[in-house]
Input
Amino acid sequence: MGPGSPGPVVLRRVALADLGGLPAAPWRNGAGLTRELAADPDGAWRVSVAAIAGPAPWSAFPGVDRVSCVVAGEGLVLTVDGAEQSVRRGEVLAYRGESVVLGRPLGGPVQNLNLVLARGRAVGGLRVVELAGFEPGADDVLLWALDGSGGGGGRAVVVSAAVR
Output
């Protein structure tokens, strides 16, 4: 991500370098790679972005709630507990960490922004906002520009997370 390109912008709690400079870690099931963007020091919540190039099963995360949004690429076809749905860039989907999830990119590779919340320990979510006039809330931890530079126009995904 170069200057002026869509991507993450830090609101608080994180000093984020260029996304390519963050270490990539394998998914729990080894089917993909993810980069951690922000996390609660006690493990109550975590924000990451996964690069998805082909069909893959998602890792199981028992005891957590997950919220995802495609932030680059066309979208994903997700099958969550047997129910198939298309999730386009900028659309948010919430599901339980215990769910059986299979994903397939639409039209090529995607980047999927993920928020994982320890059930009963953290609250949060993802929401898409217009950047013009946006003011971050107390629990907003990260903003990912979907279009524009993140400076004054366009849309962005805002991640909020807080420990209960």
Q: What stands out?
A: The chain has no helices and 14 strands.
